[in-house]
User: Fold this.
Amino acid sequence: MSMNNRSRRQSGLSMIELLVALAISSFLILVITQIYLDNKRNYLFQQGQAGNQENGRFAMMFLDQQLAKVGFRRRADDPNEFAFPAQQKTAYCEAFKAGSTLVPAVVKAGQSGFCYRYQPAPGEAYDCEGNSITTPSDPFATAQAITARVLFVPATADVPGSLACSAQTIKEKGQELVSGLVDFKLEYGVGPTMAGKREVESFVEQANIADRPVRALRYSALMASDKNLSQGDSKTLDDWITLYPSSKTSLQGNDKDRLYQIAKGSQTLRNLVP
Assistant:
């Protein structure tokens, strides 16, 4: 075998071939890395929105269930004033007048909430914390009214807010039931003070309730995901601030590129309105 033939068989890649191979492999690595990052970003986005939807759905369901109890009497022939006697203001609830079943909660800065009363239904009964309620064995016997409070605890710099509930023995915060909220607003549906005229005339904020009876409740919650899941401004957050300008400072200060979703609901207190 000649030396020339052996040299041709053992020759390697040229510098140009190596550079072309490196360029192609680098390009492929960049494409694959970008696909991975895009998929991860999309997955986190979907997870954040799914969490907002689930928290919002549960918050609305919980509020609907609790408000359906407001003003329930075991004996329909008992006057409201008898079933729900007057109750003085406490550290957690505003004063209940005789016959009144829903009043604003006493809250700290940034918090919001309401207190409500009802008589437990016959049979096994549980409050919003899951605790058993002692009820008379006679299904037609009058039972002592249960007082409960729903409280929104606002978010901190790194922890979203939550909805908590406390019943029977009212506590400072109570049992946390829904997390992921950063703001929560209430509007009270009030009716005329004329006896026997049970209807909703308008929805007002707490400061404008005056002496009018509360017949309905409208509630709005702003849900938020973990931070760093969004880029740029959020239209949902802007829409919320347009509706509730008083929340602008606290929300924009804790934004941190979260995903937002608004959940709204309203409930007529069916035990009080025909």
User: Anything to note?
Assistant: Helices lie at 3-9, 15-67, 80-83, 235-243, 248-253. The chain has a mean pLDDT of 86. The longest strand covers residues 175-190. The chain has one domain: 43-268.
